User: Fold this.
Amino acid sequence: MEGFDFTAFPKLPAAQLRDLAALRWIHSGESVILFGPVGVGKTHVAQALGRQTVRQGAGVCFAKTGRILAELAGGHADRTWDKRLRELVRPDLLILDDFTMRQLTAPQADDIYELVSERQGRSLIITSDRAPSDWYSLFLTPVVAESLLDRLINASHQVIMNGPATGPRAPPTSHRSVSRRREGRQGCPRGRATPGHRR
Assistant:
């Protein structure tokens, strides 16, 4: 994570994050879960890892989880769900920011289940204010929760991010790509390249 200011986030596990910045987990198709209180730099770290991935020529999509759910819900309404799902499966790395902010409806849980299942072997970064052990109660159907979360959590590197909210907040964003590959744009559906993020 070249250029990342760890002094702004003194409580972060710097050694673990520098190890993740080597991106061996990407090549193995593993995922990363960043969890901790609001304001400790989870989104900042996720975006930094995303930019590191872009530098290696991979496609990255960054989005708020709520925006992804809205995108897929719109696909049910206009019968483009399969197409929208394929677009979210395509990037080498999908970053879901603010995961498990609130309880999921049954259709939302099903959409997340399908997205994670279809991305098996492709990496995710998930940021959450809640510990993974607290996610199960946010799903209305225990079977869906166990099937999805056991698979997701067991295949992920978990980073506990504690400490006061002393670091700078990442700029607000909704649904966008942070990459442009040599062979063309690859990122979130209907997204746009993030200004200033270059190969």
